[in-house]
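Dear support,

I submitted the protein below through the web form. The confirmation email said the job was done, but the results page showed an empty box. After a refresh the structure appeared. I'm attaching both so you can tell me whether what I see now is the final result or a partial one.
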Amino acid sequence: MKEKRLFIDWEGHEVDLNDESIYDYLPNTIKELDELMFSRIGYALVYLKYYYPNWDDKQEWRIHNLIKNFADNRKEFRYLRPSKNLENILWFKEQIYIFEDETENMC
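What the results page shows now:
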């Protein structure tokens, strides 16, 4: 049994990131997950920059850090070096889940 990795969502609920059932709503291919994450990133950036440019600095900083973490941990692909995360569906799902949680309360 995997050790629990607790995450507190924006509503204050505890979620175990190792519980794969929390990701059931997400697609099951790397390509679809990658496209979904880039879509979510684009939406968040447009929202922050153009709809509400005076957004909370702390949340904007957290969103930019999540984007940087995602990019830094998949960018090796561009340099033709294998990234351990490019074949890890659960890693992609976790990144999307956490990103969506952070941006969920933007609307």
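Response: this is the final, complete result; the empty box was a page-load delay. The mean pLDDT is 87.
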